[in-house]
Design goal:
alpha/beta; TIM Barrel; 12 helices; 8 strands; 46% helix; binds 2-phosphoglycolic acid
């Protein structure tokens, strides 16, 4: 049985003071969760969050990083820096990074390799736009994004990548993929991994759904055969709402 992993992606939200207020209630609300709980925060919040998450079951992640260890890259944060402060997870290739910050399949691949070099656990995002879905190329697109992102990783590494299928038309729009649509797309990704890396890897790799997940639809989504949890944006900002998603099975 694969474990469930539920990650919040705060995007560009929450000041450090707002993080303190979130953490006044959230840890108690999720302390008995069966799912693994992750909060992916803005860099500026990470040290505060890590301190408050110490001695809880909450893991801390960030939302992007550079692939180089150091250098003349003004404004960037390196995997070495993240490792040094003890960050666990890093989101790589979120559609907003791909759309607004020139993230490509190639840079995503470099970042995944860098994450493993620094012992960070990557959450890789893939997903199609509405036009691509309407054109009927979703399967081709998401399996290609997956293949290119994982290129050159070992089977052991691929097993440890969390992949979030996030249809772009469902992100922040209130429009969720139906549980059947989400499960179908996630199965395509698992089948692609099976074809390249074999059964053991495909059966172990954690595949999440993301895109307007809320407490009212989490249970139906997360109980589908191939969906191993979720990557949650807007609904992760409120501690009570996010705790209900984390505790979807209670
Ligand atoms: P959303 O965002 O839950 O607000 O749709 C999900 C994401 O972009 O990770």
């Amino acid at each position: 049985m694969r474990r469930k992993v539920i990650a919040g992606n705060w995007k560009m939200n929450k000041t450090p003071i707002e993080v303190v207020s979130f953490m006044e209630t959230f840890p108690e609300l999720v302390k008995d969760a069966e799912a693994e709980v992750i909060l992916c925060a803005p860099y500026i919040d990470v040290m505060v969050l890590m301190k408050l998450a110490d001695d809880t079951n909450i893991k801390v992640g960030v939302q992007n990083m550079h692939y180089e260890e150091s250098g003349a890259y003004t404004g960037e944060v390196s995997p070495k820096m993240l490792r040094d402060i003890g960050v666990d997870y890093v989101i790589i290739g979120h559609s907003e990074r791909r759309a607004y910050y020139n993230e490509t399949d190639e840079s995503v691949n470099k970042k995944l390799k860098a994450a493993f070099n620094y012992n960070l656990k990557p959450i890789l995002c893939v997903g199609e736009t509405l036009e691509q879905r309407e054109e009927g190329i979703t399967k081709d697109l998401i399996t290609t994004q997956t293949r290119l992102a994982l290129k050159g990783l070992s089977n052991e590494q691929v097993k440890k990548v969390i992949i979030a299928y996030e249809p772009i038309w469902a992100i922040g729009t209130g429009k969720t993929a139906t549980s059947l649509e989400a499960n179908e797309a996630i199965k395509w990704i698992r089948d692609e991994i099976r074809a390249i890396y074999g059964d053991e890897v495909a059966d172990e790799v954690i595949l999440q759904y993301g895109g307007s997940v809320k407490s009212s639809n989490a249970k139906e989504l997360f109980e589908m055969s191939d969906i191993d949890g979720g990557l949650v944006g807007g609904a992760s900002l409120d501690p009570t709402e996010f705790s209900k998603i984390v505790n979807y099975n209670k």
